[in-house]
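Hi R.,

Here are the chain sequences for the assembly we discussed:
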Amino acid sequence: MKKVSYEQVVEAVARLCKESNYFLGEDVKAAFVEALEKEESPTGKDILRQLIKNAEIAAAEEVPMCQDTGVAVVFLEVGQDVQVEGGYLYDAIQEGVRKGYTEGYLRKSMVEDPFNRKNTGDNTPAIIHTRIVPGDKLKITVAPKGGGSENMSAIAMLPPAAGLEGAKKFIVDTVRKAGPNPCPPIVVGVGIGGNFEKAALMAKEALLRPLGQPNPSPEVAALEKDLLEEINKLGIGPQGLGGRTTALAVHVEIHPCHIASLPVAVNINCHASRHKSISL
Amino acid sequence: MADRYITPPLTDEMVEELRIGDQVYISGVLYTARDAAHKRLVELLDAGKPLPVDLKGQIIYYVGPSPAKPGQVIGSAGPTTSYRMDAYAPRLLEIGLKGMIGKGSRNQEVKDAIVRHKGVYFAAVGGAAALISKCIKKAEVIAYPDLGPEAIRRLEVENLPVIVVNDAHGGDLYEEGVKKYGIPT
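And here is the predicted structure of the full complex:
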């Protein structure tokens, strides 16, 4: 049994909150550069250049790349042979978020009640998703998620007769409706199958996959390629001002489902596709 | 499409010169307000009370900045999505607000109010928050400090780059962009 201390978790989470907001992933930066080569709209090109420059400033000065430093979404992969010592794991996560958002001058965006809207002041609570896995590692991923793009996400409980075409139509229509609002070029996470909550969780997890890495299943990879092409025909373009680069990537995850169901969830991420991981 | 340099307060004539697609550099004073601050401003108007800031001829920037690090004027400060302010914007245009800066599309009521009251809606680059903060030379909270990132701030800016999306003549750059680059399937 491997032991991980409460403090180690707090420190790791605090660091990941800061680093994910300051340092854009190499995969996203590479996708910007590739998009810049393909983009036909002069305004679109100019915006992509600004996004590259913005990422450079944020990293150099260690400031948030976007003022919306998001809900702290935390994915845990807990090896079944890991023991957390000195306190409750979830408390350590919340303390790490509190520490990271405060020390890192990150914006606190969580309100304590959806109706009274009083800010909690420290960006807690984080939203935590836990998976128990084999082994003795504790993997923590912090994925700050902005409100603008999250608000454009959608789920449909389609009838099975809708089939692949129905699912594709819902995904493309969701992006069309989102238009300029979620800060394109976007990353589109899709979950198909499972049930209502499984589809939504898969859509969010799909956003964690490195850009440009297709789903291992050739059929799903072909669907991703097809969807990306369809979405980039919409003409929405960088910041919605028109252009070829509406999405940088579409990532699809699928799962078995009930004979009556065909759930399709679309989680839209802005161009600041942020996430950082650590294994303890 | 032209490069233009403007300083608020804006007049009807200044606004009428702006056309969709124009790249505009704003210098001078802007006021920040987003969801919760807008709600309070409109509640004051409904109650017939004065606003904490005179908005005549002014521009509101929809932003909730991140906290300033030591030595910084303001933290990262990119635009937030504008449609959430659609419920309040026509009311503020009616009392003399001239400009709004945000990102994303506005509803028909706001677009109509922009034409009726000779206003303008600008988009700043969403997410380019570290870059945009470089144009902000001074920032102070002037109302609703309890709202934290949503408090109303008075900003002094220099050459803040924005693009005209909805002009006083009814133009909509987002619709034009999709028309120009959309490929029918």
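The CA atoms of residues 109 and 123 of chain A lie 6 Å apart. The longest strand of chain A covers residues 247-257.

Let me know if anything looks off.

Best,
T.
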